[in-house]
Amino acid sequence: MLAGAVLVISIVLFSIATVTLWWMMHAWRTPEVLESTTFAQSDGQTGLSITLLLPIRHERQDVVENTVQKMLECDHDNFDIVIITGADDPETTGIARRLALIDPTKIHTVIDPAPRNKATALNAALASGQCLGDILGVFDAEDVVHPELLNHVDHAFRAEDADVVQGGVQLLNFYSSWYSLRNCLEYFFWFRSRLHLQAEKGFITLGGNTVFLKRELVEPPPGSDAQWGWDDKCLAEDCELGVRLSSAGKKVVVAYSPEMVTREETPDTLKSFVKQRTRWNQGFLQVYRKGDWRQLPTRRQRMLARFTLSTPFYQAASGLAVPTGILIGILVKVPMVIAMASWLPVVPMFLVLAFEMAALRDFGKEYFGKEQPDQSHKVGFGSYVKLVIGMPFFQIILMFAALRAVWREMRGHKDWELTKHVGAHLVAPAPSSAATSA
Amino acid sequence: MSTTLDRPIERAPINKAEAWRFLGRPADFWLCAAATLAVLLVQAWNIAGYPRVFDDEGTYLVQAYAIDHGMGLTPYTYVFDHPPLGWIQLSTLAWIPAAIWHSPGQLVVAYSRIIMLPFTVASCILLYVLSRRMTLPRWAATLAVLLFGLSPLSVTLQREIFLDNIAVTWILAAFVLAYSPRKHLWAHVGSGLCAAVAVLSKETILLAVPALVVALWQNVDKRTRKYSFVGFAGAFLLLIIQYPLYAILKGELWSTGGKISEIAGITYQLSRPGSGSIFDHSSNAYSVLHNWLFYDPVLIVAGAVAVVVSLAYRHLRPVAIGGVILVLAAIRPSGYLPAMYIIQMLPFFAIGIAGLADRVVHAILTYRAKPVFWQQLSRLAVLLVCIMLAFVYVVPRWYSGDQNADTQDLNTGYADAVEWVHTHIPHPGDQRIVVDDTLFLDMLQDGFKPSRYDIYFFKLDVDPDVMDSLGGSEANKWKSIQYVIETPYMWENAVQSYTTEKVLQNSKVVWYYGAYPPNSIKGQNSDVEIRQVVP
C-alpha cells in the first residue's frame, strides 16, 4: 500500500519535473530557437506612438528621477510618459510634479483618486484621457529602460503584427544575498526561455513591466460595461491581463535581448521576498479561479493554463513529497524497485541544477562579463557554490510562500503587500538609510 | 554539365546519383531496409544450431529468467559481476522465445537467441543512420551495414546472448543522437541517456564514451554548446549513478572481509588476471584473437587499419577514436581480454572501412587528368581491382563462413543430453543435478528446482546459500548431488571447485555424446557426458 503510493507519487513527480525541465530549457533547444527569442534587428523606422505608464507609490526621488531620465534618453521619436501617483500620497505626487517640469511636453501626471494597487493606478491613467499613444508600455518606479528598446518594440509590433509585446526583465543584484542569486536565475530562465514557449503555445502570463500593448485592448469601450483595463481585485494583475488577452486569442510576442532588458532588483529582505512571492502565488490562484483560461480554444492550451497557474503549488507539494519518498525508501522495508523509484524525481531535479549552473555562467557573461559596462561584481566560484547549497533552502522558502498564499486566499486576506525598492541594481547605489517602506 | 568557365581543365562527368524514391519512400529507406533484411535473414537462419552454446549466454538468460520470476537479479546471490541492465532488457524480451519453448529437443539457450535479433536489427538501422549523419554517401552507409552484419565473425557473435551486443545497440543510438542534424538539446540529453544505458548493459563500452564526447563536440552549435554538454553529461552521470545507488540501498556498496559488494565486484573485474600479449603464442589473448581471426580476418585487419587511417579525416574522427581506443585496450598485455570483446569494435570497424572507401572513391572521382580518357581509364582500373579483391578474397571466404553458420548444428549433443534427462530421470524435483549455465534453464523446464537442486557448478564452493543447502560436512557435500552433466566448459574449469571435482571423480557415465567414448580424450568439441554420482 505504502509502496504503491510511493511508486505512483514518484512517477507523477518525475513526470512533472521532467515537463518543467523541458519547458525551462525551451530557448536552448536548438540554435534556431535561441536566435528567435531575441528582438529582430530593427529597421530603423518608427510608425507608432507610445505612451509609457509609470505608476509610483512611496518612492524615493532619486530612484524615480533616474528612471524618468533614462526614459527621456530613448531615441524613439514619438513617445510620452504618464506618471501616476495616489491621492493619498502627496509626497510622491510632489516628486512627480517636479519631474514633469523637466520636459512638460513629454511628461504628464495623473492622480489615482482611489489608490489601492498598481491596477487602480493604471486604470486611473486610462480613464484620465492622458494616454494617447497607439501603444501603452508599463514600467515600474525603479526600471532602467534601454534607449533603443522603444524602437525595437515599435518594430516588433509592426513586423510581427503583435497585439502585445513583452520585453525581457532581469534581476541583476545576484550578489546581494543567497536567495537573490537564485531569484536572478529564476528571472533569467523565465524571460529568456519559458515565456517564449508560453507565447508560442498561445497562453501567457505577462510580466508586471516592460509590457507593451495596443491601447484599444485595454481602453474602456464606449457604451459598454465589459471588463476593461487591469483587474484591480486580482493580486497579480499582470498575470490576469495576459491570461485574459491570450484567452481572447490576442497575439503576444516575447523578446529578450540581454542589452535591452529592463534591469531590476530582488526584494531587499527575505521577508519582503516571501511577501512578494505570496502575492504572486495568490494572484495565480485568483486567476485560476476566475477561469478566463477556460475559453482557450484547444484542450492542450487549457492543460497548459491549468499547469502554469498551479505550478507554485506543485512546487510546494514536490518539495514535501520528494524527501518523504526517499526517506520511506531508505527507512521502511519496501521492495528494491520502490526504493529505487523514490529517487526517480531527483534525476530531473539535479539536471535542473546542472542547467542552472550553465545558465549562471551565461548570466555572468551577459551582464557582468568582460565586455559589459558593469564590472562591479563577478560571477565566481563562490556564486556556483551558493547556487548549489541554496537549492534546498530556496525550495523551502518557495514552499512556505505557496502555503502562505493558499492560507491567505482561504482566509480572505486579499490586501496588497508591496515590495520596496532601494536601488541595489543601479550601478551607483544610493544610501539605503533613506529607504521608505511600503 | 562537363565544363565551367572558370575551370580550364575539362572534367569527366560524374553521375551524381539522384535522390530516387520508390513507392513514396526515399532511397535511404530502401537501402537501409534491404541491407538490414539481408543481415536479419543470414543471422536468423539456423540461429539455434550455430555457434555452440556458450556458458555466458546461459548465465545472462538465467538471470533474465530470475527477474521475470521474481527471484531478484539472479537465481543466486548477485555479486556485482556486471551492471544488471543488460539482462533486465533481456527479461523484457523473454516473451519472444517463450512463444516457441516447450518443444522437445530444443535447447532453451539456443532458441532464446532470437532475443538478440531485435538488437541486431536496431544496430543495423542505427549504423546506417549514423553513417549518413556522418555525411557518408548512401552506398557507403549500406556497405557499413553489410560489413557490420554479414562478416562471419558478426554472424557468429551477434547471434549469441551477449551483453556486448546490447551495449553496441545503445552506444550506436547515443552516437546517432549526438549527430542530431538540428543540434537539438534533447537529442544530446538523449545521447547521454543512451550512453549510460550502454554502460549499464556492459561496462566495457565505457571505452567508447570519449569518442562519443568528440562526436558531440563536433556537432554542437557554439551558441548552445554549454547546455548541450551539461545536458549530455548530466543525463549520463545521473543514470550511471543509479547503479551505486542500488548498492547503497542494499547496503552493499563496499565491504570488508571478502563479503559481496559493488566495490569488490568492480575491483575483481579490474584485477582479473591479464590475458597476456596477443603476440605471445602461449597467451590466452593470442588464442582469443586467433579464434576471432578464424571466423573472419577481413573485418578485423581491414577495420583496425581503417580506424587508424580514419583519424586523419575530421568527419570520421569520432568513430576512428572509438575504434582506436578499443583496439589499444585489447592489445594492452596486462589486461583481461574477454572472448566477446571484439563485438564492441565491429561497428567502429565497419564505419571506418566504409568511410575510408568513400574517401578513396571520392579521390578517384575528383582526380583530374588530361585527356579525359585517362581519368575514365583510371576509374575503371580501380573499380576492377575492387571487384577482383572482393570476389577473389572476401566474398568466397564470407560465403563459406556464413554458409557454415547457416547450416551446421553444433548443439545436438546438448539437446540430446536434455532429452535423455527428460526421459530417464524420474522425479526431477527431488534430485540435485550439477550443470553449466547453458543447461540450467533446460533443467528447470524439465522439473528441477532452481538454484538449490538444479545447480550451476560455478556456484559450488562459492555461494554459501548453495553450500548450506547441501547436507553434511564440507568434504562430503558432494554426496548430496545425484547427477552431473559434464560439458567441455565444465571439464576445463572443474579444477576451480573442490566439490565439482569430487562429483566428477565419483560418478559413472550413464550417457554420452561425441565421437570419443567416455574417459578417452577430454575436451573435444561436442563431448557431453551425463554422470550419475556414486557415493
Description:
The complex is a heterodimer of chains A (438) and B (535). Chain A has helices at 2-24, 31-36, 61-72, 90-100, 118-128, 149-160, 178-201, 215-218, 237-247, 270-290, 299-331, 336-341, 346-368, 381-411; strands at residues 50-55, 79-86, 107-112, 135-138, 164-167, 169-171, 211-214, 252-255, 262-264. With 438 residues, chain A is of the alpha/beta class. The longest helix of chain B is centred in the last third of the chain and has 36 residues, at 372-407. The N and C termini of chain B lie far apart (89 Å). Mean pLDDT of chain B is 85; it is low at 1-12. Chain A binds chain B through residues 22, 25, 28-32, 34-35, 329-330, 336, 339-340, 343, 347, 350-351, 354-355, 357-358, 361-362, and chain B through 182-186, 189, 221, 223-224, 226-227, 230-231, 233-235, 238-239, 242, 245-246, 249-250.
| Overall structural domain count of chain A | 2
The CATH C-level name of the largest domain in chain A is: Alpha Beta
Average residue-wise pLDDT of chain A:
86
Q: What is the SS-derived class of chain B? A: mainly alpha
What attributes does this structure have?
heterodimer, A: 438 residues, alpha/beta, Spore Coat Polysaccharide Biosynthesis Protein SpsA, Chain A, seven-stranded mixed sheet, two-stranded parallel sheet, 52% helix, globular, disordered C terminus, B: 535 residues, mainly alpha, Rossmann fold, 2 domains, five-stranded mixed sheet, two-stranded antiparallel sheet, 24 helices, 7 strands, disordered N terminus
Task: Summarize the structure in short.
The complex is a heterodimer of chains A (438) and B (535). Chain A is α/β, with parallel strands linked by helices.
